[in-house]
Amino acid sequence: MSPPTPRESVCPFCGVGCGIQYNPTNGKAVGWHGAVNTRGEVCPKGVAAFDVVGHEDRLTRPLVRGDDGQLHEATWDEALLRVETAFGEIVAEHGPDALAFFASSNCTNEENYVFQKLARLLGTNNVDNCARLCHASTVAAMSDRLGAGAMTNSLTDLRDHADCFLVVGANPAEQHPIVFRSYVLPALARGATLIHVDPRENATTDAADLHLPVRPGYDIPLLNAMAKVVVEEGLVDRDFLTERVTGDEDFRAFLDGVDVDREAGRAGVDPDLVREAARTYAGAGNATTFTGMGMSQHHYGTDNVHALVNLALLTGNLGKPGAGVNPLRGQNNVQGAGDVGALPNLLPGYADVTDDAARARVADEWGVDADDLPALPGLTEVETTHAFGDSVHGAFVFGENPLVTEPNLARVREGFANLDCLVVLDIFPTETAELADVVLPGSAWAEKDGTVTNTDRQVQRMRPNADLPGDARRDLDILCDLGRRLTGREDQFGCDGPEAVFAELTRVTPQYAGMSYDGIGTGSQRWPFPEGASEGTAVLHVDEFASGSKTAKLRPVVHVDPADSVADDELVLTTGRVLQQFNSGAVTRRSGMLTRLRGSDVLQIHPDDAGSRGIADGDRVVVENDRGTVTVAAEVTPAIRPGVVFATFHYAEPLINDLTGDALDPVAKIPEFKHSAVRVRVADDV
Ligand SMILES: Nc1nc2c(c(=O)[nH]1)N[C@H]1C(S)=C(S)[C@@H](COP(=O)(O)OP(=O)(O)OC[C@H]3O[C@@H](n4cnc5c(=O)[nH]c(N)nc54)[C@H](O)[C@@H]3O)O[C@H]1N2
Ligand SMILES: Nc1nc2c(c(=O)[nH]1)N[C@H]1C(S)=C(S)[C@@H](COP(=O)(O)OP(=O)(O)OC[C@H]3O[C@@H](n4cnc5c(=O)[nH]c(N)nc54)[C@H](O)[C@@H]3O)O[C@H]1N2
Ligand code: SF4
Ligand SMILES: [Mo]
């Protein structure tokens, strides 16, 4: 392997999409002046991004499970032939819907586009990405109400024009650090306010004017109470309501039944604080919301976001600079994976699989008849694992680690054990790869070419800085090779490289129409990208909503109880993230630089709850419920609400998703990661 060469690429971690490249002086990453980090800023994860290159744990040879039950090194031909044979047999016996495809929001638009095309040309819509575990509910609510499930505004627009940030269930100071540092803090410095709704004080709270420590799962009562204050105190935007909003009368009738004190009480927040938050948000010239996993990951996550959209509609905070509903997206390409169709119900460009005209458009590009493409929605990720061994017998997991990140892992583990064939394409021997029949060694971000779409809809280019290790191959080449083998379609999986795939996907993804590699260059192109535009549209819904209608509707939202009821001796476990680790930790736990940072494998517990259980700071504690048992060190801290405990899901030990439940949102099928009932006690061995 020759030493890496600096070339402008994009950080592989969060959806902010900072431009980074190799720094030969210290072997770390350094920011270049990218489209988002315009002054070259990066956070600690970005700096450590090159720790994957040449890492001793990297997968460098294909692995195939032998008759002895062990994984053995194999040639590429042997490994791919094994996939071809096993998947062929499954399709022959059970039909194409007996296969399931997990796409990767950590990977490029081109890779995800080819991946979903492979699934669909095989005849199944069972393709999904971990947006399902993430903002699926947000996308569902926003698409339904406004016609687009994406940030309504650009980050630059918010930095320059927002007067108030209502941050609900998100911790951007740690999860979107460069958004926070380079867009939110400058806005606060010029006088904007920040309201933080989170059961836990964290780095975002440190910069907040108001903190509403909501009870996990009770955002709807809180947001309804805020809406009531807005209406009661005449803080609505009358002109906007007249011109752009319907359903006003029904909504007011609904609010008649909302009592601010009672709803604030249910949410566990001081009613005066709720009133102050409502006045601050509604009284600001331009107010935006930032919404995250604290809202989306409930079995009524879609309703949570509906309640947030109501507040924006009442106060006229949509369709103008500095105002809007802004979900901060998760991985570096979770926005793009959805845009290009790695979803079971939607084709590239969010066209419904049931829509004959949309299928015909895609079929035409792929050289088949519309009838040849599957016309019924496929299974979502969590539904898929529940169907393993039942209706689904083969799975292809590309750049995900579900054995750490899915809810109720005992059930998921059982599902995986029932598969006839599991194929994993990854860069490390993950907890999921350990169960695979075939493991394919792919390319890390630093070794690949392609585009990714960040949280504010900017499409940017990644460029290789480093050589591939051993026999590892580029993900796109592997997927194209498999596409040819599994479908026999040389013309559709020609391996002409990412630029050719991008050109194809812009023809079937209307939001990307007109974009090109040359046009993006070392800048970005933002969707929607109107013909003749140089940059794309920063603020959505200006004259009409993306739905094509001038108006959007207010919708009464009724609180639903979390799936787990909580007994007197139980606490509510909510889960989330910390700055220095990323998702399943497959990459960041292996980074020498990041693991030196402060430990994060702890259970945060309030001093009152710790005291009544005889737990001291640092004690090992057992956390358990009917689904599982986990042992972890306690961090006793008043930062967390009484009655609530918090842990991250970044580790295989402690494996927090052994405790989470798999109740799903009926619309978006997102699981309830943010509310589980648990018992906590000091571990016997101390
Ligand atoms: N450092 C780091 N950055 C990341 C990631 C990472 O793993 N590490 N992952 C990326 C991904 S995939 C995503 S999706 C984003 C997620 O980014 P965030 O949405 O910020 O992620 P979380 O930490 O899961 O949840 C945010 C907050 O919700 C709070 N919360 C919990 N329950 C509730 C509730 O019921 N109501 C409310 N209002 N709040 C609640 C938690 O205390 C937590 O502070 O981050 C991305 N960026
Ligand atoms: N309890 C709890 N659970 C959660 C959440 C929570 O808040 N609480 N959040 C959920 C959310 S929002 C998300 S997004 C999911 C994330 O769930 P996952 O997507 O399963 O988690 P990641 O760790 O991001 O998995 C990425 C995998 O891709 C591999 N990889 C990285 N780069 C590449 C590449 O370029 N090529 C290939 N082939 N592989 C690559 C990594 O090694 C890793 O195994 O977790 C969900 N689970
Ligand atoms: S903010 Fe996100 S994209 Fe930027 S360097 Fe940090 S992890 Fe990477
Ligand atoms: Mo996510």
UniProtKB/TrEMBL annotation:
Any GO BP: respiratory electron transport chain
SUPFAM superfamilies: ADC-like, Formate dehydrogenase/DMSO reductase, domains 1-3
PROSITE patterns: MOLYBDOPTERIN_PROK_2, MOLYBDOPTERIN_PROK_3
Domain 4Fe-4S Mo/W bis-MGD-type positions: 4-55
Keyword Translocase (UniProt): no
Keywords: 4Fe-4S, Iron, Iron-sulfur, Metal-binding
Name the UniProt record assigns to this protein: Formate dehydrogenase major subunit
One example GO MF annotation: metal ion binding
Signal as UniProt keyword: no
GO cellular component: membrane
Originating organism: Halogranum gelatinilyticum
Organism placement in taxonomy: Archaea, Methanobacteriati, Methanobacteriota, Stenosarchaea group, Halobacteria
